[in-house]
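Weekly sync, protein design subgroup
Attendees: M.S., D.O., the rotation student, P.L. (late)

Item 1: inverse folding check
M.S. brought a backbone from last month's batch and wanted to see whether the design step gives back something sensible before we order anything. D.O. pointed out we never logged the input encoding, so this time it goes straight into the notes. Structure tokens as presented (318 positions):
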């Protein structure tokens, strides 16, 4: 009996498999050795061109040693230059400049009728500014400024002494109206330090002022009612101050009429006032106001509206 017959069937199978495994491993090693010899140690079958083409068709693995097969020996070739990558700089597209900031517009100017500055052209007269010395002697204060413009200087009291005040009280009617009182065309009416609303005092009109101006250095002074505004403006342009009858603070209130002791009809206002004009422009007149001793400009329209309440009464100093 052979040894094979002495081994049991399972053992024979294990033995057979082990033999086959050893044979397979040997075969793999033989093939690997043969292939390595062909690639590395074997002589090239074709020229460099064929080798280069074959090498180019195979993927490159491992480190770049710069090894190439030349004959049956290993030769170190010159390393290939290192490749350098550059990124092309692309400048950003130019952006449109921001729109210029809008030029700030100046705030609109507000034109104030009173007080206001003169127009581009104007004529002004050097007249001193005086404040009236007594409560109701505005007419005398304006007269004093008109005389002083020509170098004739007087006090309010000295001039007022020529106005012969009529201090009798008025006869009142219904609704606080005056029925009868003195004649301001001939005398100062009422108490000069009284009240024009009560009323205990009033004022004086142009004839008395003209008379005093002529007797105190200005014989050519003249006055009246119904003056055209153009006549007043022409006098101012010729540098002649003009006293005018208006109302306090350029108000435009109720007007009435009383009968004087001598029978004259007298137009009146409880805020009767007199100022002196000392300048003119294309649209305005300059005012010296004795009430507070101030000087300012007002529009011609405003002046003419209020001046009309006293029938355009004026005295021109010349």
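Designed sequence read out in the meeting:
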């Amino acid at each position: 009996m052979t040894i094979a017959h002495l081994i049991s069937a399972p053992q024979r199978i294990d033995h057979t498999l082990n033999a086959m495994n050893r044979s397979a491993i040997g075969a793999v090693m033989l093939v690997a050795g043969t292939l390595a010899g062909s690639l590395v140690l074997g002589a090239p079958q074709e020229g460099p061109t064929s080798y280069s083409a074959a090498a180019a068709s195979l993927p490159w693995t491992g480190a770049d040693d710069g090894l190439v097969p030349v004959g049956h020996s290993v030769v170190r070739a010159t390393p290939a230059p290192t490749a350098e990558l550059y990124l092309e700089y692309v400048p950003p597209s130019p952006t449109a400049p921001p729109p210029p900031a809008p030029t700030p517009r100046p705030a609109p100017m507000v034109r104030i009728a009173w007080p206001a500055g003169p127009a581009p052209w104007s004529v002004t007269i050097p007249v001193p500014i005086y404040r009236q010395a007594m409560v109701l002697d505005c007419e005398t204060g304006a007269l004093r400024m008109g005389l002083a413009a020509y170098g004739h200087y007087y006090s309010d009291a000295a001039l007022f002494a020529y106005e012969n005040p009529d201090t009798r009280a008025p006869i009142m009617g219904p609704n606080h109206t005056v029925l009868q009182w003195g004649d301001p065309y001939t005398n100062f009416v009422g108490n000069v330090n009284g009240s024009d609303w009560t009323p205990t005092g009033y004022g004086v009109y142009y004839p008395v002022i003209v008379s005093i101006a002529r007797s105190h250095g200005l014989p050519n002074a003249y006055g009246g009612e119904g003056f055209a505004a153009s006549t007043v403006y022409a006098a101012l342009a010729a540098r002649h101050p003009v006293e005018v009858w208006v109302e306090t603070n350029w108000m435009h209130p109720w007007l009435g009429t009383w009968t004087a002791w001598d029978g004259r009809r007298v137009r009146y206002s409880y805020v009767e006032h007199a100022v002196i004009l000392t300048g003119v422009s294309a649209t305005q007149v300059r005012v010296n106001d004795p009430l507070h001793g101030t000087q300012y400009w007002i529009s011609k329209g405003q002046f003419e509206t209020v001046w009309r309440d006293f029938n355009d009464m004026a005295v021109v100093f010349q």
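Discussion: The chain has eight helices and 13 strands. The domain at 122-316 is CATH 3.90.70.10 (Cathepsin B; Chain A).
Action: P.L. to compare against the previous round before Friday.
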